[in-house]
Amino acid sequence: MKDRQSIFMARHESSGSLDDLLAQVRACSACEAHLPLGPRPVVQAGARARILVVGQAPGARVHASGIPWDDRSGARLREWMGIDAEHFYDPARVAIVPMGFCYPGRGPGGDLPPRPECAPLWQDRLIAQLPGIELTLLVGAHAQAHHLRRTGHVSVTRTMRNWRAHAPCVMPLPHPSPRNIAWFKANPWFDDELLPVLRQSVRKLIGG
Ligand code: SF4
To answer: How many structural domains does the chain have?
Structure first.
């Protein structure tokens, strides 16, 4: 019988090699008209990666550096995972495939959501080229809504309370943004119960 991760990966069709696909992504301008700073896809993937991080979209700082999770949210995510930057930025260990690859701009409430054109174009095709993934981190509302759409996902809060239904192969996480500090404080079980499981899984797969 297939486990959840096998089913999850089997949903993604394969097409072409990873290098070819990454070259296509890096040349993409499909939603250029909506991007205030223009296209600059930020993505990391190696064919042997064992952990997949699906976030939302780069912020302005990441757009400027071209380095994924190159901000305070990234520092917190690495702390949650229990790994340093050297391990995190090794594409042979960690693939970083957000729901939107380019900075979508800002609205009244902060950064805009990932461009809706991006995930249907690239997400499933890229994941199909990552056969070694054993742990998928779904970081924030957009990643969870897309990848858990067939599992009754309604909200981050409800999915987080039910995280054990997805673990250990798929781990939903709240967005590690400083804007979510109130949520972290209101949910101490996240530090006490979920993070030790996450760190153990990460250590087992890639060290740290
Ligand atoms: S956000 Fe995605 S679809 Fe839009 S230009 Fe960037 S890579 Fe292409």
So the answer is: 1
